């Protein structure tokens, strides 16, 4: 896989994350934070995508699917 459109990935990640947080928090205070995030991070949120050695598009898709459902950090670290 030779190309990932990083701009689209950053914007998509930002929108999905903020929308999901807003759905759970559903507060006027978070709406202000969400709007501020869009202003402060107009290029989207940073995403780490190391160089890939995947030989085919299917290899890349399999790699992404493997990690999509996994949390970035343990829930215990978030709650502490």
Automatic annotation (TrEMBL):
Where is the Transposase IS801/IS1294 domain positioned along the sequence? Answer: 14-78
Name the residues that span the membrane. Answer: none
Q: Which Pfam families match?
A: Y2_Tnp (PF04986)
InterPro entries linked to this entry: Transposase_32
Q: Its GO biological process terms?
A: DNA transposition
- Coiled coil ranges (UniProt) are none
As one GO molecular function, the record gives: transposase activity
- The protein's name in its UniProt record: Transposase IS801/IS1294 domain-containing protein
Q: Which residues form the signal peptide?
A: none
């Amino acid at each position: 896989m030779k190309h990932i459109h990083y701009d689209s990935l950053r914007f998509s990640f930002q929108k999905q994350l903020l929308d999901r947080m807003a759905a759970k928090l559903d507060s006027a205070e978070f709406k202000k934070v969400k709007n501020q995030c869009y202003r402060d991070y107009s290029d989207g949120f940073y995403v780490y995508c190391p160089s890939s050695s995947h030989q085919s598009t299917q290899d890349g898709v399999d790699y992404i699917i493997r990690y999509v459902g996994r949390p970035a950090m343990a829930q215990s670290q978030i709650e502490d």
